[in-house]
Amino acid sequence: MNSALQDDSSAYSHTTMKYQVLDRIFNKSSFPRKFERLELDEHLRIVELSEQVQRFADRPEEVVLLKDIRLSFPEFIGLEDILKDILQGEQELFELEGIGRCSENQADVYMNIYIIGEQREIKSESRLIILIEDITETMALKQKLAQRANEANLLSNALMAYKNYMDQVITTMADALLVTSNAGKIKKANFAAQKLFGFSETELIGQSISLIIDDHQLVQNAVRQNILFQHYFQNIEVVCRNKRQDKLLIAFSCSVIHRKIEGLEDIVYIGRDITTRQRREQRICAQYAITQILSESQSIKQAMPKILQAICQTLGWDLGELWTPTEYITRRVQQDSSNAVLRCVEIWSSRVVSVREFKAITWQTTYNSGVGLPGKIWVRRSPCWIKDIADDHDLQRSQPAATAGLHAAFGFPILDESKILGVMTFFSREAQPKDVELLQMMVSVGSQISHFIKRKQAEAALIESEEQYRDLLENANDLIQSVNVYGRFLYVNDAWRNTLKYSEAEIANMNVFEIIHSDFKTQSRQQFYRAMLGEKLEQLQTAFITKDGQTIYLEGNINCKFVEGKPVATRGIFRNITRRLAAETALRQQQEQTEHLTQNILPSDLQQQPESITGDLREVTVLVADIVGLTEMAADVSAMQLVNVLNSIFAAFDRLMAKYSLEKIKTVGDAYIVMGSHAPAIAQMAIDMQTAIAILNVENRQSLNIRIGIHSSLVVAISLEKFTHDTWGDTINIASIMQSQGFTGKIQVTAETYQRLRHKFVLEKCGEIAVKGEGKMTTYLLIGRK
Prior knowledge:
Blueprint: H1 2-26, E1 35-40, E2 46-49, H2 69-72, H3 80-87, E3 93-101, E4 109-118, E5 127-134, H4 136-141, H5 144-172, E6 176-181, E7 186-189, H6 191-197, H7 201-204, H8 216-223, H9 226-232, E8 236-241, E9 247-257, E10 266-273, H10 275-296, H11 300-315, E11 319-324, E12 341-349, H12 356-364, E13 366-368, H13 372-380, E14 384-386, H14 398-403, E15 409-416, E16 419-427, H15 436-467, H16 470-475, E17 479-484, E18 489-492, H17 494-500, H18 504-508, H19 521-532, E19 537-545, E20 551-563, E21 566-576, H20 578-593, H21 610-613, E22 617-628, H22 630-634, H23 639-659, E23 663-668, E24 671-676, H24 679-700, E25 705-716, H25 729-740, E26 747-750, H26 751-757, E27 761-771, E28 775-785
Parallel strand pairs: 25-26
Antiparallel strand pairs: 1-2, 1-5, 3-4, 4-5, 6-7, 6-10, 8-9, 9-10, 11-12, 11-16, 12-13, 14-15, 15-16, 17-18, 17-21, 19-20, 20-21, 22-24, 22-25, 23-24, 26-28, 27-28
Helix pairs in contact: 10-11, 10-15, 20-23, 23-24
């Protein structure tokens, strides 16, 4: 209850005080009085205004709601503390008397300004009430001297407040601020400048700006050319030094404070440290440059000097070296490298340093493991930093490096998992503190370089291993190609070039997917990726586009070359099947025309009424033969030639069939199916078929072969018109399996046939094969007659 009484008492007291202040303002004895009104929030922004208040403003257009009062009434500049006290209730009233507004276009206006506070329960809603009294008539009666004295006093207060305000801004600003004379003597340094450069204010005041800025003379000269200064010295990047002599990159904006007496100008420097930003940008540029070099370089020796140059130029180092235990990392380093002897195989240096003698010593220097900067990195397998090489205990090169003006140094290993391939070292003319982020980046760069080296070594090993086969490949009729993991051609043979008609230069810049026909592109990409995963692809088909726009259809095999478990290249061998596909089409058309030549009717002894043969069991032996080599032959001969050869073969087989009184069931493509009730006759025909193929090869200069399978069993006659494949069911199927799983140039028979032939023919046991629906079946090879 007491608290409530106190609050009421406080509110009453404030209200009473407010009315007293208003009474003092409005009850002054004077001429009839006119007032205009403004209401401000805690940020001195206008939240309410009367109708005629603009005519009292210095800038009437700025008398707008939510605008800062100081923009339109400059009298409020410097009164911020007073206004704050009034707003918080610590001061009742503030008056500005005798303020005039002079204008060329309007009559002079004079005013008194009264400022009172209006406190509310929520502090942020408290308001400043600005009452502006028009005293133009009154002031006209006052002496001009009193008016000028009052204005001078107000101006003095404003300037002092502004000075305090600016001093506070300068002290608290995050950017470094330095003020010097035109001779370069430091007159003022804010706290941020002291912290940035590591000097106290006492150590800086009176010193030359050259204490911290390397090229200070450039700025001094520019003071005398104001136009040049304004153009070139806004946000200029300048190399500076801190108290420890570390290099800093500062972005300065400079301006000149002119004075009435010429030659007494001051120079203001406002600077921001951009060293970290510059280093980050340099590292991004270095990483991009290295990646581009590795992607474009054709060899290790081509890439290494470019990488040294890129690191030096993008990161601001003066000399780079590559150390290896081998001639040029062209061969794989042995697993045991603890006793390696390192020698420099590559050096790059900038033109701003004279290091001829140092480079001559380096070329002749070798390091054992653990000795010198390269040797230490080799043993530790981690980056190393030396702030000043003069302090290092390298007896061979510390002194020559210091003589050449080199100081800071760092290096990193080129690591491939646990193996180290080489070491890169770099030198700078400046002594530099350890940069942990740079070393971390170089670990990644070393790994990136090692992957490139291993890939190039693998490609070189692949090319070397394939050299011994090059003559064979060049003379082959098949199209042979080798493509790296990016789809770039590593090798194509003469047949490939002659068929597709691309030049060596075009092939070197070509990706394999650029010449694949659009209908095969998606399928070919999938096959390429499958091969990269280790799958061996056989009998796949694709189509290439020749230089003159023709489509060439190919069939062949693809596999991938792996080195240490990583894919390095795919190898493909393709045969041009364009003519074969056309021949097969023609062959199908020819077969349709000659189908009646390949059909057979049933033997005469089976021509009977259905009711008399249904269920008759007959012992038959079925022979299935397949001509091997016709598919390859189709790519080299015309369709009619292929049909003629096939007809010659089948005619010879037909003569053998008639000779042994057998029946032909059907020909399916290049397969020939015969049946008979006498197994020895079938066996003898099979032997004679091998002889017939050999004779035809001599006559036609071909290299065809035959694969034969035979099976014997009991069958049921179920058709009157002809024997078909379906009529003999499992018998033909098993004979076909004997053929398809047999050997080229051999005759494979089942155990059932073996029992019928073993007394008159020579047979050898072959083994067991799995037959669907029959389980494992023992097979034999028919050699000949006894």
